[in-house]
Design brief:
Blueprint (H helix, E strand, L loop, with lengths): L5 E13 L14 E12 L3 H6 L8 H12 L10 E2 L2 H15 L8 E8 L6 E13 L2 E18 L12 E11 L12 H12 L7 H16 L10 E8 L9 E7 L20 E9 L4 H12 L13 E6 L2 E4 L10 E10 L3 H15 L13 E7 L4 E2 L17 E2 L8 H10 L12 H11 L8 E7 L20 E8 L10 E7 L14 H14 L3 E5 L12 H16 L5 H4 L2 E5 L3 H10 L3 E4 L16 H21 L3 E4 L22 H18 L10 E4 L8 H9 L9 E2 L6 E2 L8 E2 L5 H8 L12 H13 L4 E4 L2 H15 L3
Parallel strand pairs: 1-3, 19-20, 19-28, 20-21, 21-22, 22-23, 23-24, 27-28
Antiparallel strand pairs: 1-2, 2-4, 4-5, 5-6, 6-7, 7-8, 8-9, 10-13, 10-14, 11-13, 12-13, 12-17, 15-16, 17-18, 25-26
Helix pairs in contact: 2-3, 4-5, 6-7, 8-9, 10-11, 11-13, 13-14, 18-19
Family: In the C-terminal section; belongs to the DHPS family.
Protein name: Dihydropteroate synthase
InterPro entries: DHP_synth-like, DHP_synth_dom, Dihydropteroate_synth-like_sf, FolB_dom, GTP-CH-I_C/QueF, Hppk, Hppk_sf, Pterin-binding_dom
Length: 825
């Protein structure tokens, strides 16, 4: 044959319900508009046999095709709004799915070409529509081309070089065609024709160009700006604009200019990467919450799915990286109060997905995690909302419904319209971007939170920070949710903490020290056998310890180096034995941290059942001081430590205690570099700056540890004089104050602001020095229990979330009294 044969159904009239409305938006979101559309269906098909035999059996019945399409699209009854279509693309998807997947003719249909026209188009436009080409592949189908068109958009503008044309607006008629390489069925990723036409009508009407050429180019730019809201960063459509002046020429129907433009034609308006295939990236803020099932598991699963968008986005170049996370908060439900409490948080992401496609990804993640649609603001396994997207202001709701706060289902509004009234959104945002400005009201996030807190009475259930502890070892039936996502642990328990030091609504907890080493400064050779270690663990549980810290490597000055294998052999069997205890469920489920700076030891300990990592070197290894080091070799080693331990923490989702230290515990006690704050506060400033730098490197950036998993330790007894240790102890709450730090030339917010803190002063040598002063006495470490009690009481008064001690029963008594004094529940 010399060409392709086609069977065509042309301009098939069908009445459909469109939720996007007709000339005007629907009066109510739940009442879509019934209106006519025209469908033209073209099917490439060899009709030679039908022609030779003059027999329809050898062809495809266009009557059957027309009937099938009408039946699939038309309302089922006059009493019900079904089926309802969100867009012309959704209608196209329904037709393609019907013919290429369900039709009796599907084996003969390899490709279809489709045109859908909406004649009752949005105001100021004669008609809109789409043309697309779809092909069948195995049992599915795909769209390889789509063209959007808007016919005869009419605007009145000042345009022309003649003096008379500068005095009065005249009609300009635009015809727009947008060629797109394809679209993704069922993603909600569709063009909002009404928004595009409204944008052009409003903005073009304000122009006063001399030439039609300039007006056409400007119209193309405005159209591309609108397209950017729903296209991925790697998609580059071309837009064709025909701009006609019907009243320009006496002997012609119109003068007209036609232009074809892409993003690359406006380099100053759109970020481009030249000839690179790397898509441009934007920053967005995502808020999340869960109040059904294992809330912490749900949130962790959602975030891991977010970072592998390829599982549900058919885009090989899709990028979503989490760059920062907030703390997690437990909050009472808002609006609908008869439901479980929520766990809330937020994250900052970098992505090449445009806002509408990102919204589609979030909805699919919600479905995967298990959200079941319910009442508005009702319970859900996970809820994901785009709060901010760069500095964009977007509202895809119909113009007349934009003042309705609840009308968000299926729509995208950025900034989120209710963020300014929600403490559970603003607190997480303040953790990450306190000084960022709201793109509409011009106020900082910190200011917005202050306004919310000052305008509402103190709630019966104030928000609390939470630190989740996962259950390890994993059960035998634990499976990875996806092949490239490690198994996610269930939650064992969590610590609820006050949002600020000034809110004493949570007790200080007790961490019991179990040194399975022969050379610990305080209790070496005491608990270094399996039986003595288990006896100690039982005693810790009975005495009221909240967590057991198991260590196999002494960090005292002059301690003998221990191999990785020896350290593992000291800690992992103890942890495994505790998890296998059969006669004591309280002991078997006790929280366990592993006191190590080595990723190999941490991995083995967690596999054995540890729930937390306690690292005295904050992921940078024992020899890196200062950090970052001026020595290239030391810095390389430090980067290896931080990379491996971050990766491990992300994989296992365990909390980490990060301590301030400066290499060997007895060295590097000079803090004169921080004397700009005064000699009495230099050590605290040094802790903020030095530990803060490490914490920022650990929490922020791609692959960062979740902020809610970090507890900080100011490092009592490590690289500090007696006075330095006392300075930190008496004012340890200020280590994590939300204040500015650094010299005048480099003032910045304290990177440790808001982190829960742990204090470990038990039996330390500086206590011995104090006890020996004046008419005092010389003491051995195990004789410093009373001195330790004073530090524990001080830590409680300063709002520490936990204290690390040797003498469990005695310090538990101190905690009970001190908590009653300063941290009443």
């Amino acid at each position: 044959m010399s060409g392709t044969d086609y069977i065509r159904v042309k301009d098939l009239l069908v009445n459909v319900y469109l939720s996007s409305g007709a000339r005007w938006p629907p009066k109510e979101p739940t009442k879509p508009t019934l209106q006519p559309i025209f469908v033209t269906l073209s099917i490439p098909y060899d009709i030679k046999n039908a022609a030779d035999n003059d027999d329809l059996e050898n062809s495809i019945s266009y009557s059957a095709l027309a009937s099938a399409v009408r039946a699939a699209l038309s309302p089922t009854s006059s009493a019900e709004f079904t089926p309802v279509f969100d867009s012309l693309e959704c209608i196209g998807c329904r037709i393609c799915d019907l013919l290429l997947s369900q039709s009796p003719y599907r084996s003969a249909l390899h490709q279809i070409q489709l045109k859908i026209s909406q004649t009752k188009a949005p105001l100021h436009c004669r008609g809109i529509g789409i043309e697309s080409s779809a092909a069948r592949s195995a049992d599915s189908w795909y769209v390889d081309r789509i063209r959007y068109f808007c016919e005869d958009i009419e605007c009145h503008v000042i345009i022309g070089v003649n003096p008379a044309e500068r005095l009065e607006k005249q009609l300009v008629r635009f015809n727009i065609s947008i060629d797109h390489p394809g679209y993704l069925p069922g993603t909600g990723n569709f063009l909002d024709f009404r928004s595009l036409i409204r944008r052009l009508y409003e903005n073009v009407g304000k122009t006063d160009f001399l030439t039609l050429e300039a007006l056409a180019s400007y119209t193309a730019l405005e159209s591309l700006k609108e397209l950017r809201l729903f296209l991925r960063g790697d998609q580059a459509p071309s837009i064709n604009i025909k701009a006609a002046k019907p009243y320009a020429l006496v002997f012609a129907s119109a003068s007209e200019v036609e232009v074809c433009r892409t993003f690359s034609d406006y380099p100053s308006e759109f970020k481009t990467e030249g000839t690179s295939d790397t898509p441009s990236l934007s920053t967005a803020v995502i808020a999340f919450g869960s109040n059904l099932g294992d809330r912490f598991y749900n949130i962790e699963l959602a975030l891991r799915l977010l970072e592998v968008p390829g599982y549900s986005v058919q885009n090989a170049h899709a990028v979503v990286d989490i760059l920062d996370t907030s703390f997690l908060y437990e909050s009472a439900p808002m609006y609908v109060t008869d439901q479980p409490t929520f766990i809330n948080g937020a994250c900052i992401i970098q992505t090449n997905l445009p806002p509408l496609e990102l919204l589609g990804l979030l909805k699919r993640i919600e479905a995967t995690v298990g959200r079941v649609p319910s009442i508005r603001n009702g319970p859900r396994a996970v809820d994901l909302d785009i709060i901010l997207y760069s500095d964009l202001v977007i509202d895809t709701r119909p113009q007349g419904q934009r003042q309705i706060g609840e009308n968000l289902e299926g729509r995208l509004v950025i900034p989120h319209p209710r963020m300014c009234e929600r403490e559970f959104v603003l607190r997480p945002l303040k953790d990450m971007i306190p000084d960022d400005i709201h793109p509409i009201n011009g106020k900082s996030i910190a200011t917005l939170l202050d306004e919310v807190l000052s305008s509402f009475p103190i709630p019966n259930f104030p928000m609390k920070k939470v630190v989740p502890f996962p259950r390890y070892p994993l059960s035998s039936d634990s499976k990875a949710p996806l092949t490239n996502i490690p198994p996610i642990p269930s939650n064992l328990t969590y610590w609820a903490l006050p949002c600020s030091y000034a809110s004493p609504s949570s007790k200080t907890r007790l961490m019991a020290i179990l040194n399975s080493t022969p050379d610990s400064f305080s209790d070496g050779l005491v608990h270094n056998t399996l039986s003595t270690a288990l006896d100690y663990a039982r005693h810790a549980t009975q005495s009221g310890a909240d967590i057991l810290d198991v260590g196999g490597y002494s960090t005292r000055p002059g301690a003998v180096s221990v191999s990785v294998e020896d350290e593992i052999s000291r800690v992992s069997p103890v942890i495994a034995a505790i998890r296998k205890v059969e006669d004591n469920e309280l002991l078997r489920d006790m929280l366990i941290s592993v006191d190590t700076f080595r990723w190999e030891v941490a991995r083995s300990a967690i596999d054995s059942g540890a729930n937390c990592i306690n690292d005295v070197y904050s992921f940078t290894g024992p020899s890196c001081y200062p950090y970052p080091s001026n020595d290239a070799g030391e810095q390389t080693i430090a980067r290896q430590y931080i990379t491996e331990l971050k990766k491990l923490t992300r994989e296992f989702a365990v909390p980490v205690v990060l301590m301030h230290s400066r290499g060997e515990a007895g060295a590097n006690k000079d803090y004169s570099d921080y004397s700009y704050v005064g000699s009495s506060k230099a050590v605290i400033e040094g802790v903020r700056v030095e530990l803060g730098l490490k914490v920022d490197d650990i929490v922020k950036g791609k692959g960062g540890v979740r902020r809610w998993l970090v507890i900080v330790d100011p490092g009592i007894g490590f690289s500090k004089t007696v006075e330095g240790n006392l300075e930190v102890l008496r004012d340890s709450s200020s280590v994590t104050d939300d204040v500015y730090i650094g010299p005048e030339s480099n003032r910045r917010r304290n990177p440790l602001a808001g982190f829960p803190s742990l204090i470990g002063a038990s039996r330390k040598s500086f206590l011995g020095t104090i006890l020996a002063g004046g008419n005092g006495r010389t003491t051995q470490p195990n004789e410093r229990g009373w001195a330790t009690a004073a530090t524990v009481a001080c830590a409680v008064q300063q709002g520490a979330c936990a204290v690390r001690v040797h003498d469990i029963a005695e310090m538990a008594d101190v905690l009970r009294v001190a908590n009653s004094l300063w941290r009443p529940l």
